[in-house]
Amino acid sequence: MSHSPASHTEEQKLIRLYKQTGNMEYAGKLFNNYMHLVYGVCLKYLKNREESQDAVMQVFEKLTESLKKHEVENFKSWLYVLSKNHCLMKLRSKKYQSERTSMDISEVNMENTLMMHHNNEPPLEDDLSRLEKCIEELHIEQKQCVQLFYLESKSYKEIELLTRFELKKVKSYIQNGKRNLKNCMERKSE
Hints:
Distance between the termini: 44 Å
Mean pLDDT: 79
Radius of gyration: 18 Å
Oligomer: single chain
Helix content: over 70%
Strand content: under 5%
């Protein structure tokens, strides 16, 4: 059907070249392999072809900025989350233009990251305010570790250095925090 996606090694090479040179051609090559995926994600959320086509171009613009700042290990997954975040923010700005909301962008990012990693769990984006309340209910250590891990994409080792918690504690706080979030979300949806 379309050209086959580049191998992981080729993608890493294109990412490196783009970061070094800033040449849009490299970013374009990376993006073109997954343009259909981005369009599919946008169509799923925005449910409008014209808006989705615009969103694809906006996601590409975001990609050219974000790729310079982030270490991207799995480009396809990263691009999926970037696209999804873009669409959710678009929907939120539409939905909440007239309402005031205390929801923080970082929580939306966390919600997407959780969705990305746990496809078998119920969709968390159903109720963003529910997620926000559940995050607030976490124990302080769990909240801190979960936010660093999911929002700031910190490794266990980085979290250990930042929080001064032992490595096994960090893993435990993230695991328990994630479980508590899931339980809280289920409880609040009943």
